[in-house]
Design goal:
With 118 residues, the protein is mostly helical. The protein is built from 5 helices and no strands. The protein has one domain: Orthogonal Bundle (c-terminal domain of poly(a) binding protein), CATH 1.10.1900.
Length: 118
């Protein structure tokens, strides 16, 4: 029986890893073992940070809203509570963009929330 060899599959697998490591510095882009380690680390970090990105943006939107509410002397938590009581279903992303790009409309929403809270 002939011996099974994996040269084609091995070459394809190595080529894939080396292509992924092509932008790295030093031996991490040239030596297979080091490239493989770095690619595995990079993929793990990419997975983690895709999850973290969602958290980071939510924090950013909350900070923007808090800053936009300062002139109206209203806290973020009271504003969100008032939105729910008023039945306004706008998410934090839309509200923060509105506060930056259309402050007049944002002011109307704040006034509506103020009426509901009284």
């Amino acid at each position: 029986m002939t011996r099974a060899r994996y040269s084609v599959a091995r070459k394809r697998r190595k080529k894939k890893i080396m292509k992924m490591a092509s932008g790295y510095r030093g031996l991490r882009s040239r030596e297979f073992v080091r490239a493989k380690e770095q690619v595995n680390h990079s993929l793990a970090y990419a997975y983690i940070h895709r999850k973290q990105k969602k958290r980071d943006f939510r924090r950013l939107w909350i900070k923007r809203l808090n800053n936009a509410l300062e002139p109206y002397e209203m806290s973020y938590s009271r504003f969100i509570n008032g939105l729910k009581l008023a039945g306004i279903d706008l998410n934090r992303k839309v509200l923060s963009n509105m506060a930056i790009e259309a402050p007049a409309e944002f002011g109307k929403i704040v006034e509506r929330v103020r009426e509901v809270l009284k």
